[in-house]
From TrEMBL:
This is Molybdopterin-dependent oxidoreductase. InterPro entries: Ig_E-set, MoCF_OxRdtse_dimer, Mopterin_OxRdtase_euk, OxRdtase_Mopterin-bd_dom, OxRdtase_Mopterin-bd_sf. Gene3D superfamilies: 2.60.40.650, Oxidoreductase, molybdopterin-binding domain. SUPFAM superfamilies: E set domains, Oxidoreductase molybdopterin-binding domain. PANTHER family: SULFITE OXIDASE, MITOCHONDRIAL, SULFITE REDUCTASE.
């Protein structure tokens, strides 16, 4: 009896680092708009934390009228909402920068999405009552470790300005795709900040503090900052909103194809507005034609899938390109905004194929 061809073939995460664990989604093989947690990319700065789930409490403290301490059961009883949200690592596509920059050499798979269910952070802040003069809300995780650049131990903590913290869709999530958030993705509670790069979506929440000043933790003031110059910090500014971007999932880069009809397909996303147009070039950018965007996402929280039918008769090498535009008329640039830590790469998508 002959063996079946490629039995049980399925994609796997692609490893970028083991200590700490950093793995990317095989985005070119994903054909659905929600990612199973097993294929959701993993971004860690430190080892996974050790937690005692039987006695889990979430404190809300700082510049509040009444300090609160919520049990997980308390949070589960509060009014919730479910949102489809794309999370993209700020370093996604870092390996494409020229000149090269240091850091995890992510290709195109430090991005995933699915349905997150939780309680608006605003609800918890209202229950505690923010005092006048509140400026930022600091969310601290249980993950911690030593930073080699500072030679000091830090927990992972980030702050949000008040306007973003009280946005109705900034949530403290406890479910992903209708199941409890998996441990490696932040169980039991994870902050989800739609429209911003995923460094803001703190995992394994330890406590939430309201402050009246600018938070200066290293993951706010050293990392996740755009530094336009290699040798100095002039013109530095924080990483926040996801830039308009796209990825070609099919065909694969450097794939060999036959003449005839082919479907070029992929995803496009934006942190500001929604995707209004995706254009494709099959001749290295000489001419552009609109692709069919099959999933219009009016909220701007999830990616939009797109397809383009390409008929090719001549053999040779071809450069295929994709360019997304959002509702604020922002489009992918021909060249990325270079910065020395390699954040926010969103240049026009480009791959090469050979027709035989």
């Amino acid at each position: 009896m002959p063996y079946p061809l490629y039995p049980f073939v399925k994609p796997y995460l692609m490893t970028r680092g083991l200590q700490p664990e950093n793995q990317e989604t095989p985005i070119q093989f994903i054909k659905t708009d929600t990612i199973d947690y097993q294929l959701f990319y993993r971004r860690n700065h430190f080892a996974y934390p050790g937690l005692s789930y039987s006695n889990y409490w979430l404190p809300i403290n700082g510049l509040v009228k009444t300090a609160k301490c919520f049990s997980l059961q308390d949070i589960l009883r509060l009014p919730s909402k479910t949102l489809k949200v794309v999370l993209e690592c700020a370093g996604n596509k870092r390996s494409l920068f020229e000149p090269k920059v240091f850091g995890e050499q992510w290709e195109k798979g430090a991005i995933s999405q699915g349905y997150w269910k939780g309680v608006p952070l605003r609800t918890l802040l209202e229950l505690a009552g923010m005092k006048e003069g509140a400026k930022e809300v600091v969310v601290e995780g249980y993950d911690y470790g030593r930073r080699t650049d500072l030679d000091t131990v830090h927990t992972y903590a980030r702050s949000l300005p008040i306007y973003k913290a009280i946005h109705p869709d900034t949530i403290i999530a406890y479910e992903y795709n209708n199941r409890p958030i998996p441990f490696k993705h932040g169980y039991p509670l994870r902050l989800i900040v739609p429209q911003w790069y995923a460094m803001a979506s703190v995992k394994w929440i330890k406590q939430i503090s309201v402050i009246d000043s600018d938070f200066t933790g290293p993951f706010q003031s050293v990392d996740y900052v755009y530094y336009p110059h290699k040798e100095n910090d002039e013109g530095a500014f924080p990483v926040t909103t996801i830039k308009v971007n796209s990825t070609i999932q099919k065909p694969l880069n450097m794939e060999v194809l036959n003449t005839g009809k082919h479907i070029i397909e992929g995803i496009a996303w934006t942190g500001k507005g929604n995707i209004t147009k995706v254009e494709v070039s099959t001749n290295g950018g000489k001419t552009w034609t609109e692709a069919k965007v099959s999933q219009q996402n009016k909220e701007g929280y999830a990616w939009s899938a797109w397809k383009f039918e390409w008929s090719v008769a001549a053999k040779g090498e071809y450069t295929l390109m994709a360019k997304a535009t959002n509702s604020y008329n922002q489009e992918q640039p021909a060249t990325p905004f270079w910065n020395r830590k390699g954040y926010g790469y969103n240049a026009i998508e480009k791959i090469k194929v050979k027709i035989e």
